[in-house]
Design goal:
seven-stranded parallel sheet, six-stranded parallel sheet
């Protein structure tokens, strides 16, 4: 992708924005603007193909703004700032591939469609022009966690940012709306539902809106994997807010979805950026598990992968809330510092689990797809899917949360044929997000065929993903590619079968406790609640381990470590307290 003249476009946009804020274009700035426009014409002549077309789309609104400044201008615009200065404030000392075009388009006043993979820096595409221009930027996102995270980071840097969300108090939202109306905010973050509130839209309309940015724009498409009916209302925001430019951003748009985004949002001849979907540092594995003993082999594969030296931090995505709880408890029982996260948990419990993973107090989080959108932990070394997800787009978006720091990372899909029943039921129901029932049903079955085709393919996993997203490039892995191109070494594969071994006698934890042992088990449960300190009880250890402790009454660390579900971390944190309890009961 040939470079565009970033400095020349940014300088011209700055001159024009400065004049718009002042209400006039003085002779010196007029001469400078004309020289810069002439220079852009020369640059345009030297470019070819898509780069030439992109520069033409960016230069056209700049020329129109220059001409408009020959007349009187009335504006509530603030004084703009140089792009390089703003990039420094945002910690971006160099632009990544693909970021230049949408940033320049926004500064110029041109529409853009940005399709860049998770972790590639889409947020900078609207944050940089927001603080460099003289008007207001409105960012619409369905992800409250992402809104909160972006707001807090930008506010901590001293930048004029605001947000209005359902998680804030009514008083905090009223204060944010007052700041918008007063012109004190340059970047406003909100969810699409906010536009139903008249006071909010009136405050936005009191400002000149330079950019309307629609994040997760695939939600506007009924052919997207995460269609949201409320997103269909966003097309009217162009009439409501009269922004100079609209920017649509997504990580997971196929060519068909991209076309619908352009149509639904009314993007006018947009500058389109598709940086490619390959994640070179990510290895892609599908482990197919069928037949007798499949569940045991599934656990063996997950335990071996997470237990490797570079296996954590990791996210394990589960298809249901029940599976999430089962996996979280199973991992804790196997000695991992694991927590669970799903939408059915109480808000406080869910927040504690998220904070534990983000802070490093937990190494693994088992979660439904409710976790991860907008969660920025760059050092995740593995994303595992405990069950087959409902779409290839959703799978790759979730897998992309591994290795955002650029270091080697894994994405592993543990695939069992038993998962297909759940996927078929989902497809028959036409998905779960409304819209036209016929389109929803067709979309769900199209997604089913894509994800099952990926699982069953005998070809390169990386290439299959690139083909699905219409990426004409060739994958260039930095290390291992996938299980097809670079099969796992024998010691990293799950056992061929766990079903042919002789049945073992019941473990101590499977025995029904009575008398003093039952009493001890209840005392241990109370002890565990206290040690959990408000976190889910299984983060300390599972019931199975407690039953064994109640029966065997270990007296030293060696015997304690011999109990299934007790690992070194448990011994380090809890053994002293546990031995005191067991000693008191002796």
């Amino acid at each position: 992708m040939p470079d565009l003249p970033v400095d020349a476009v940014a300088d011209l946009a700055l001159v024009l924005a400065r004049a718009e804020a002042a209400g006039r274009l003085d002779p010196d700035d007029a001469a400078l603007a004309d020289r810069l426009l002439a220079g852009l014409r020369d640059e345009w002549r030297d470019l070819q193909g898509a780069a030439r077309a992109d520069l033409g789309r960016i230069a056209a609104p700049l020329r129109a703004r220059r001409d408009a400044l020959d007349g009187a201008v009335e504006s509530r615009r603030v004084h703009p700032r140089p792009l390089r200065e703003v990039l420094g404030d945002l910690g971006a000392h160099a632009l990544r591939p693909g970021q230049d075009r949408p940033i320049l388009a926004a500064l110029a006043g041109a529409d853009s469609l940005v399709v860049m993979p998770t972790g590639s820096g889409k947020s900078l595409c609207f944050q940089a022009p927001a603080f460099a221009s003289g008007g207001l930027t409105v960012v619409v996102s369905p992800l409250i966690a992402l809104i909160q995270d972006q707001h807090d980071r930008l506010a901590a840097a001293g930048l004029p940012v605001g947000m209005v969300t359902s998680l804030q108090s009514a008083a905090a939202n009223r204060e944010a709306i007052a700041h918008i109306a007063a012109g004190d905010v340059r970047l406003m973050l909100c969810a699409p539902e906010r536009f139903a509130h008249e006071a909010f839209t009136r405050a936005l309309q009191a400002n000149p809106v330079d950019l309307l940015a629609i994040d997760e724009a695939h939600c506007v498409s009924q052919w997207g994997h995460d269609f949201r009916p409320e997103y269909l209302q966003l097309g009217r925001l162009r009439d409501l807010l009269a922004p100079r430019a609209v920017m649509a951003l997504t990580a997971t748009a196929t060519p068909r979805v991209s076309e619908e985004i352009i149509r639904q949002l009314g993007l006018a001849d947009p500058v389109t950026v598709r940086t490619g979907f390959d994640r070179p540092n990510l290895s892609l594995d599908v482990i197919r598990l069928d037949g007798r003993g499949a569940v045991a082999r599934k656990w063996a594969a997950l335990e071996a992968g997470l237990g490797a030296g570079d296996g954590t931090p990791a996210i394990v995505y589960c298809g249901t809330r029940a599976a999430t709880e089962e996996v979280a408890e199973g991992l804790a029982a196997r000695g991992f510092r694991a927590v669970g996260y799903h939408a059915g948990m109480a808000d406080a419990e869910r927040i504690r689990a998220q904070e534990a993973f983000m802070s490093g107090d937990a190494d693994v989080i088992a979660a439904t797809n409710a976790f991860g959108m907008g969660i920025d932990r760059a050092d995740v070394r593995g994303v595992w899917h405990w069950s087959i997800p409902t779409s290839l787009e959703g799978y790759y978006q979730e897998a992309g949360r591994a290795g955002r720091d650029g270091a080697p990372a894994r994405a592993v899909l543990l695939a069992m044929r038993a998962d297909l029943g759940r996927l078929i039921r989902f497809a028959n129901q036409g998905g779960a997000d409304g819209g036209d029932p016929r389109i929803a049903r067709d979309r769900a079955w199209t997604a089913y065929r894509a994800i099952t085709g990926y699982v069953e393919s005998e070809g390169c996993r990386r290439q299959a993903i690139l083909d699905h997203f219409g990426d004409p490039g060739t994958g260039r892995p930095e290390g291992r590619c996938c299980d097809v191109c670079d099969p796992l070494p024998p010691d990293a594969r799950p056992p061929v079968s766990a079903a042919r071994t002789a049945p073992s006698p019941p473990a101590a934890a499977d025995v029904v406790l009575d008398g003093a042992d039952a009493d001890m088990f209840e005392r241990l449960r109370a002890w565990r609640r206290d040690r959990a300190d408000g976190k889910p009880a299984y983060t300390v250890c599972a019931d199975r381990a407690l039953r064994t402790i109640a029966l065997e009454r270990p007296r030293d660390e060696a015997s304690l470590l011999g109990i299934s579900g007790v690992g070194p971390a448990f011994v380090e944190r809890h053994s002293e307290s546990l031995f005191a309890l067991l000693g008191d009961a002796a």
